[in-house]
Amino acid sequence: MIDRARITIRAGNGGDGIVHFRRAKFQPKAGPDGGDGGKGGNFYIQADANLSTLDDYAHKQKFQAEDGQPGGGEVCSGAKGEHVTIKVPVGTLVKLTSDNGELRILDFDEDGMKVLVAKGGRGGRGNYQFRSSTNQTPQQSTPGEMAEIFEVEMDLKLLADVGLIGLPNAGKSTLLSVLSNARPKIANYPFTTLEPNLGVANVKGKKIVIADIPGLIEGASEGKGLGVQFLRHVERTKILVHVISVTLNSFQGRSDEEGSMLNQVQHDNIQIWKDYMTVRNELKKFGNGLDEKKEIVVVNKIDMVSEKEVAEILKTFKKKKIVVLPISCGTMTGIEELRGKIDLLR
After folding, report:
1. Which of 7, 13, 27, 39 has a CA 20 to 30 Å removed from the CA of 235?
2. Which phi-psi region, left, alpha or beta, contains residue 251 (left: φ > 0; alpha: ψ -120 to 50)?
3. Rounded CA gap, 325 and 346, in Å?
4. What is the rounded distance in angstroms from the CA atom of residue 259 to the CA atom of residue 253?
5. What is the DSSP string of 173-210?
6. Same domain membership, residue 205 and residue 132
7. Are 143 and 206 part of one and the same domain?
8. Are 193 and 337 in the same domain?
9. CB-CB contact of 183 with 170 (8 Å)
């Protein structure tokens, strides 16, 4: 998934005005008739809900609108340059830097939002514009105006109502498939999800966009594992659903001599709490208010342990004054209750 891109954009240059004199039969000195140059095309950026990545800008870095055409004889103006519109996914933050270092930031947070980001240059004036009673054969014209040029940084931050977070293999992708229409890749090994998945859930007649954020590990805020490239996708979500697994191994970031990053540690109540705090700490370290968002904590896969074990887990979190919702995607236990909590917090 390409969610960051750097490109250069240029509007169209204005066409040159020309020096020209009419040469008609029986009118050898009919006067100046040099036309103006055409205006250069403008450059626009538009948000499009049908796009989900910035892949279009991975291999092409320069985009420009059409230049205006030079003027012609018989006071004919040059043709205007065609405008250009490039499209970006909804949720893209665009930073425009001009030649003189001026910075402009645009947030394309609504579908169809369209902004003129670079103006085409004005066309130059032909010599017809310089005629006067004292200057009947003007020899001057003006060149077309140069267009605006910008260096552009595009940073996609997914727009979702709900973000599913947790360690690798906590069951986020399965939960997304249960809650929504998404069909993400699901497998019993870490980092199955290598890019955010989006799904749309219908909760009491309302459409809610849910994002499955790839698994976080200790040090994610510093770039370990899949790192900060996905943490920033949590920024725009309204609610975080923190998914904790009661049965699978805990995947902590660690490198051995062979480059393995996964250290399997059997879950117990203490480990489950540590897993929860690992993700919470990474949200806090990343900043931008991630740790202050509304949070629903769910303990997943309860169908694979005893009721007594589930009760002990809930007791551990209750001591920390954290309400936990036990769920199972396999038996659908707690799923409707989770939908209700999501609806209330919206």
Report:
1. 7
2. beta
3. 17
4. 11
5. HHHHHHHSS------SSTT---S-EEEEEEETTEEEEE
6. no
7. no
8. yes
9. no
Instruction: Answer yes or no: are the C-beta atoms of 10 and 40 closer than 8 Å.
Output: no
- Domain coverage including residue 21: 4-156
C-alpha 98: how far from chain center: 22
Task: Say yes or no: 133 and 213 in one domain.
Answer: no
pLDDT in tens, 85-143: 999 998 899 999 998 899 999 999 899 999 999 999 999 999 999 999 889 889 999 99
Picking from 155, 159, 153, the residue whose alpha carbon sits closest to that of residue 49 is 159
Same domain assignment for residues 178 and 146: no
Q: Extract the runs of DSSP E, i.e. beta strands, from the chain.
A: 4-10, 43-48, 62-64, 84-89, 92-98, 103-108, 114-118, 149-156, 162-165, 197-203, 206-212, 239-245, 250-253, 262-265, 294-300, 324-326
- As for how many domains the chain has, the answer is 2
Is there a contact between 68 and 35 (Cβ–Cβ < 8 Å)? no
- Place 230 in a pLDDT band, splitting at 50, 70 and 90: low
Average pLDDT over residues 205-219: 72
Q: Are residues 294 and 212 in the same domain?
A: yes
Is 60 exceeded by the pLDDT of residue 219? no
Q: What is the CATH number of the domain that holds 246?
A: 3.40.50.300
Amino acid type, 189: Y
Domain shared by 98 and 173, yes or no: no
